[in-house]
């Protein structure tokens, strides 16, 4: 299998899982493409932002967008957007050692939380308060600005809510669409668009769309509890990756 076919396989796998769980496209694509050496990290990061919009638009189409938890999304975005710029400022004014220490610490916290929730899968009896969603938005924005990793805090929060899985997925997909636009805008404002990103985007967009459609028509045969455990397992992988990159 050539490098192009491997890249398409990674994109399709990430798209299918994100369409199913509401997150993890960036986690899967960044980890697999980097490990296999299929594209440079900076190119892959920008590609992920663009293709995550394709995934979200395809997945939300057909009525899923009607299930968005508007209250949760509003509180998260209210805090996430300014926190993203704060994270970018910290990125530009901190040393590599300081960023590594923060990244490793966040990864360890995420590992502990994910392990706890994987074995004690339960929803809250009542929805979290607005300030609690805002707090997760602050963490998501800071992580996104510093490490291009918006997902873990809000995913952890949403998967504990007494909402349907449709509401969880729709809310996360909408949130990550907004953060992808933020990141794309920030990058394109400061540097020219790499022609490799354009060519890989045109190559990968059909695979991402088809995988998202397949997830809609052929979802995995998992119960809600099993799907939540799977989601927290993906967060565990994300935390492990953050820890390794931060301390090694």
UniProtKB/TrEMBL annotation:
Pfam families reported for this sequence: TauE
Annotated localization: Cell membrane
Main location: membrane
Keywords linked to the UniProt accession: Cell membrane, Membrane, Transmembrane, Transmembrane helix, Transport
Domain of life assignment: Bacteria
Topology with respect to the bilayer: Multi-pass membrane protein
Transmembrane segments: 29-51, 72-89, 101-119, 131-150, 170-190, 197-218, 230-247
Keyword Transmembrane attributed: yes
Family: Belongs to the 4-toluene sulfonate uptake permease (TSUP) (TC 2.A.102) family.
This protein's name: Probable membrane transporter protein
Organism: Marinobacterium aestuariivivens
């Amino acid at each position: 299998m050539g490098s192009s076919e491997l890249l398409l396989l990674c994109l399709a796998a990430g798209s299918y899982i994100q369409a199913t769980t509401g997150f993890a496209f960036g986690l899967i694509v960044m980890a697999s493409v980097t490990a296999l050496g299929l594209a440079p990290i900076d190119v892959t990061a920008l590609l992920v932002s663009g293709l995550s919009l394709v995934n979200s638009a395809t997945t939300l189409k057909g009525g899923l967008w009607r299930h968005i938890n508007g209250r949760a999304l509003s509180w998260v975005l209210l805090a996430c957007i300014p926190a993203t710029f704060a994270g970018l400022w910290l990125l530009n004014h901190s040393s590599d050692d300081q960023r590594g220490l923060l990244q490793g610490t966040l990864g360890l916290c995420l590992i502990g939380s994910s392990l706890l929730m994987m074995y004690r899968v339960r929803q809250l009896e009542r929805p979290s308060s607005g300030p609690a969603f805002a707090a997760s938005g602050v963490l998501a924005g800071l992580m996104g600005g510093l490490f291009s990793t918006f997902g873990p805090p809000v995913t952890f929060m949403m998967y504990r809510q007494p909402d349907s899985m449709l509401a969880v997925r729709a809310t996360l997909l909408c949130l990550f669409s907004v953060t992808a636009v933020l990141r794309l805008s920030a990058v394109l404002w400061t540097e020219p668009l790499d022609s490799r990103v354009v060519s890989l985007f045109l190559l990968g967009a059909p695979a991402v769309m088809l995988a998202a459609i397949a997830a809609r028509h052929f979802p995995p045969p998992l119960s809600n509890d099993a799907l939540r455990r799977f989601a927290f397992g993906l967060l565990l992988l994300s935390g492990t990756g953050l820890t390794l990159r931060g301390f090694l």
